Protein 1
Amino acid sequence: MSKTAIALTIAGSDSGGGAGIQADLKTFSALGVYGASVITALTAQNTVGVQGIHDVPAAFVARQMESVFADIAVDAVKIGMLSVPETIEAVADGLSRSFTGPVVLDPVMIAASGDALLTEAAISTLKTRLLPLADLLTPNLPEAARLLDADIARDEAEMREQGLALLAMGPKAVLMKGGHGTGPEAVDLLVTSDETFRFSAPRIASRNSHGTGCTLSSAITAGLAKGMSLNAAVSAAKAYVHGAILHADRLAIGHGHGPTHHFFALW
């Protein structure tokens, strides 16, 4: 029997099903990867916004990680919402003890609705404890600016400059996501110590984009779990997310920013 590709998501739950743990597991499944999960927080959330956040105790986050790693041969890990310093510490400690494979860190700070998902106190802990453990950091433009205490990048040159600045904080590579930019193309830049790679797709006008960042980072993680190179995983993930947004309007979910269509190729 061949090895089953397995990815683990460490993130918060979205009760509306469009982002967070739910989006990650849907993405893993759509891309042919078995998904395991460690839940860091519960959110009362829908397509309109976030109505509440309940953090899982850090000790129980650690217990979940111990359970998964003790039994399941995880190939790649995606990290999403970690709202408090204690949880970040627990995740960093757990990875340092039990996992040596690729780690994709999506620094989830603000929901698409504008609701804050990461406390101010947690940001410095994220920088010092988790960025150095990440094989890939995947910030959008506002998140990159917040991590650097800088203005939001206005063009590709500034995106690359900020990617290099983030690279100096410890991750092996940085994917600067240009979804918040302007123009006919949505351009992402993969910045490494050796080179910068450009990925682009036509920008799609759709209000159903909830969970796009979670979906992209988990799609990259799925590719890495299947043994793809980082470049190939990013390229495949970009194409998958483009399709998920392109077909999102086939879904009628909620009254606000609806989710992307994770199963557009299957339904």
Protein 2
Amino acid sequence: MSKKVQVISFQSLTGNSGAGMARLGHMLSTELHKRGILQDFIIHSKGKFDTAFPSQPVSAFSRYYLFVINKLVAILSVPAYKSRYLQEVLFDWFCQWRLKKGTAILFSTNPFMQRTFRRAKKLGMLVVLLPGTPEENYIFNIVDEENKKTGIHATDAYTYKKRLNYYNKSIQYVDKVIAPHPVVLTSYKEAKHKAEIVTIVGHMTPDLKPVTTVAKNDATFHVGYVAHTVLLKGLHYLLAAWKDINELGIQNIMLHIGGNADEPMKNYIDKHFKGLVNVKWHGHVSDIPAFMQQLDLLVVPSLVDAGPSTPLEAAYNSIPSIITDHCGSYELLIRNNPGCWVIPIRDKDAIKERILFAYNNTDICKQTGEYARYNMQTYSMESFMQELADYLESKV
């Protein structure tokens, strides 16, 4: 049997597309299949989605156990991090039996694969990981530090030690880690795992529909933030900066907060930022393009985030971003003429200064937004997939 590549993704193929990192797996599998070196693509569940290449769910029962788990979570109020961990362990257990003898490479976008990676090594496979997030211990340390600073002590997926231990047992079997942008590269270098780190720069951009930039008619400068807010999103640093801006008495400036917050963050915000003015709380945002179109500037203050899509969606709408250097997306936005301003994490003063700079220099702000859109329009995800496929083909 000829040597081939098995691609696995913890996410699923839904009605007509891949969800999350399954989209990367789908695109890469398409390219590998063209080259005749794809064994198959293993995903969590397949729904009604079919592929032009060999693909299969990790188990014939995965759709059913995922349904049951989600029902139990809703009925019993099981914490999301425990549900996630259970799904990851089940996926790993089933996935180990999907490995095929004679396969040269196992390519995964999910690092929580202790049993699968171990069996792959026993079968003589090269284990290649392209992680969807920065290194897990790196994230844990940032969250732990922030918990101590804020007094928030909620457990989530990144601070659940049982899950972190599973990761640490899994990563020891990985031969190559592909780093697609600086925050993944830095975090894995600091971790000093035995795996070789390979830099292949690229991004998973959102699936965006064509838009027409709408001219704004009012004299107010609109600043935005949108995310499901957990501690890692860094919203509290933006709000601290906004509190300082409030003290300047500027009237024609407005902050739009999109998305809901988990309970610990909601309580923290209510306690520390209740008196802020010129803030509109939108709650859940179902129409992201419409939200972006009302803005002049987006702020992405995340403490660590592999590749947030919101600054890319903003760029697509000619909106520049203030984004931290721990967000992978900034690498795409600063290409050519920079379409964003990159700041350190946990720096409310830097956020304040950049917001005020954009407010006082609207022509520069608009031009930066046009640069951001150009960087999005000239980026090719297909080229990224071809480079990944070139690397894997060279190892088969």
Protein 3
Amino acid sequence: MRRYGWDDLPGAVKAAVHPHVGATFDVREVEQGQNNDFALVLRSGESDLFLKGVKGISPRMRWLRNESEAGALAPGLAPDVRFSEDVDAETPWLVVGFEYVDGRPADLSPSSDDLAIVAATLERISTLPGGSVQPLSKRWGTADWWQKLAAETEDEDFDWDIVELTDRCRSIPEMVKGDALVHTDLHEHQFVIDDDGETTRVIDWGRPASGAAWIDTAFLVVRLIAAGHDPRDAEEWAATVPAWETRSEDAVTAFACYVAGLWGYRAATSPFPGATRLRLAAADYTRYRLRL
């Protein structure tokens, strides 16, 4: 996918942005994020904007539109939206200007002071209603990730019990049902912490869902394992988030199996940044949950 700088953008896209930043501004390109055709910070005397854009009708455009609506879902956590415009530049574009949120990503390593900040932020998210966003139970209706992964791997040491894992995955839609707001993609770079460590914002709400309140905490357990935590220690941290108490043990085990199969298959077929590290962390968590 081509990444556009400011100078590469069609005139119609620039014209849609100019009224919101004035005539003079500095531009900084943002490398993080793989789902947008451009991501830029525009700094001017009037306001600073974090600008994202997607070219063409696609799931990526739907995800960016979701982000533009997240302020209403997670007020005070998601960045405010300054403007959102559909632009006709021969090809359709969606351009969204967010408030620029300054800060650093969370440190998820063992003994980090940020772990308490992340837990408190998860507690806030878990109390928000999912409203009309798509239920995670619907999105996670596919149960055959492990069968697909087994078909892709040529590793003779592939020793997973595909039947058991697939059965666990079949149970996941019912187990993740709920009416809480779920981010579904929380990791260290989705938390923006100010220099004093007092204010935390959560970004990149491209694929929110409604579901059980413990789900985002379970995602963070896998991320903590990827950051060097032992699975037992990661779950002890999860217990500091009140929503974790609403889980069932079978549901968490099914979650681990599902995520490990899904991320394993994606790492094998469509590698993404950090795919191997996340695949291994999810597999470690699944072995822990299954007592393997």
